[in-house]
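Run log, item B.
One chain of 287 residues. Sequence copied directly from the ordering sheet:
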Amino acid sequence: MAYGWGWRPYVPVAQRRARAILKMEKLRKKGVNIQPVRIEGRQIARTFWGRAWCEHLESFSDYENRLPRGRTYVRNGSVCHLDIAKGRIAAKVSGSEIYDIRITIKPLPKDKWRQVKDSCAGQVGSLLELLRGKLSDHVMAVVTDKDRGLFPRPGEISLDCSCPDWAEMCKHVAAVLYGIGARLDEKPELLFILRGVDHAELVTEDAAKAVVTKAKKADRRTLDESELSEVFGIDVASAQPAPAAADPVDAEAAGTNGRRSSRSSRASKRQTIPPAVAKRIRTRKTG
């Protein structure tokens, strides 16, 4: 197509790359944090989170015909800048010119995030395991579910590129989408930031459940009063407070018979003197 219609003349890859490097260097000197996407070999994503992102995008018919055009671009280093933040991706892709790409993604609905947390509760061992993708098959199925997982659906994604291609998803946008998968290999927590949720909550929910479970087990190990009575043969419920100090007569009587009953009194320290016995002691003392 003629250049007058908006298409730029073809520029060799080596020339585009050299030009992109110069422009990115100028932006870096101005304080822009340039974050290029570098792919080693043919495989774009290698980890669980990166592969899951790419496979999720490729599962939609809206994207399947457009995404392949971006694979070559991301592999040859054309995504010279990619920044992921909450709800948006800003990128620069080297083509006939340096094109600016803006992708906005809606936050994960609260009810969906709550369902994800409930489904994963008790099955995420640690934050490190989560980010490394060392998850059970169940948790993997939950977070990657096409409709109820963490990844956005096409209706939640808005795409924009400064290139003259009229298609919503041009090859530059497709390259950036693949670049996100490669970036998740390095920093999987960016997926949660992008969707506006806190990945630590998956582990927090798990830890809370573990504490409750531990407490329940501890309760089951605690014997109540009736169980103590059966086990030790004592009536815990009828335990009485320590008796009040004995009156002088009782004390003197106890002293008189102390030698004969010292051993028995020590064996029954917690027993009280029946009233009839106390009366007989008083009578004997006064007589």
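Observations after the first pass:
- The beta strands are 79-85, 88-94, 98-105, 157-161.
- The longest strand covers residues 98-105.
Flagged for discussion on Thursday.
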